Amino acid sequence: MEAKDKVIRLVGLDKVYQSGEDVAVHAVKGVSLEIERGDFVAIMGPSGSGKSTLMNMLGCLDRPSGGEYWLEGEQVGAFDRDRLARVRNQRLGFVFQGFNLLSRTSALENVELPMLYSPQCPPRKELRRRALAALERVGLGKRAFHHPSQLSGGQQQRVAIARALVNEPSFLLADEPTGNLDTRTSLEIMEIFQDLNDKGMTILMVTHEPDIAQYCRRQIVLRDGVIVRDERVEKPLRAGEELKRLPATDELLMGGARDTPSTAAGEG
Ligand code: ADP
């Protein structure tokens, strides 16, 4: 495999937090890891094992204390803050547990935002076209002018995924993306991730839910700042299949009025 097929390469990555004069917390300890384009990785581990610290470094939100972080052949671990901010905006897509949408603007405007902050901000019409295309990819084309408060939790998370996709990132970084969602909605979100991954998107997802990690292609477990397990999932579950098996109690309760797409590509 050529170097360009490796989206991420970590070599002996370290993070030490200096919290007092002589109190240091070694949160990530010499982590080495390669992630190939098109992989779908679950990062797991108990609380305090270093997941957030590792995610913050992968997301260029924080710099390592030691070791190397290569992103598509560039050592971004050594970049200064300004360059890191550019990498974050232009090459990474973030999805959070709490969606982090702006409440006073439409779904469409939320999705346009990362492009507005980009130095290559396209003209107005193109901005709109790209944002709409991203919303269509997550099945929300018809909800473009709704505000977050007019959308369900699952739909809000889909807007957040569209926003993460809009700058065509090198990979998606998702932090407990299903943590605030019920079972059915979690599966709908996993179906979207699997659909994007099938089309080649590289995805890294922190989750503490083993059930959710079964939809990923690879599972990495951290403990005390080191990787204690790194395994391929032989046959990841398909979220679309699992959704069909779920009893449709909520549809019955709501008189069948619940607004869910039958596929990730469908209109929601
Ligand atoms: P997880 O996300 O798996 O719960 P974290 O990455 O948040 O783990 O934390 C790993 C370790 O680093 C923990 O011991 C935590 O207390 C410590 N830690 C995290 N952030 C900081 C910080 N800003 N300053 C000092 N210690 C920290």
Provide an overview of this structure:
The longest helix is centred in the C-terminal third of the chain and has 16 residues, at about 185-200. With about 270 residues, this protein is α/β, with parallel strands linked by helices. A six-stranded mixed β-sheet has the order 6-7-8-3-9-10. Residues about 255-268 have low confidence and may be disordered. It has one domain: 3-Layer(aba) Sandwich (Rossmann fold), CATH 3.40.50.300. The radius of gyration is 19 Å and the shape is globular. It has helices at about 50-60, 80-90, 105-115, 125-135, 155-165, 185-200, 210-215, 240-245, 250-255; strands at about 5-20, 25-35, 40-45, 65-70, 75, 90-95, 170-175, 205, 220-225, 225-230. Adenosine-5'-diphosphate binds near residues 27, 48, 50 and 51.
The CATH class is Alpha Beta
- Which residues sit in consecutive blocks of at least 5 with pLDDT less than 50? 255-268
Q: Rg, please?
A: 19 Å
Q: Give the number of domains.
A: 1
Task: Give a quick summary of the entry.
This protein is an alpha/beta fold. The chain has helices at residues 51-58, 81-91, 107-116, 124-137, 153-165, 183-198, 210-213, 239-245, 249-253, and strands at 6-18, 24-36, 40-44, 66-71, 74-75, 92-96, 171-175, 203-206, 218-223, 226-232. It has a single domain (3-258), classed as Rossmann fold (3-Layer(aba) Sandwich), CATH 3.40.50.
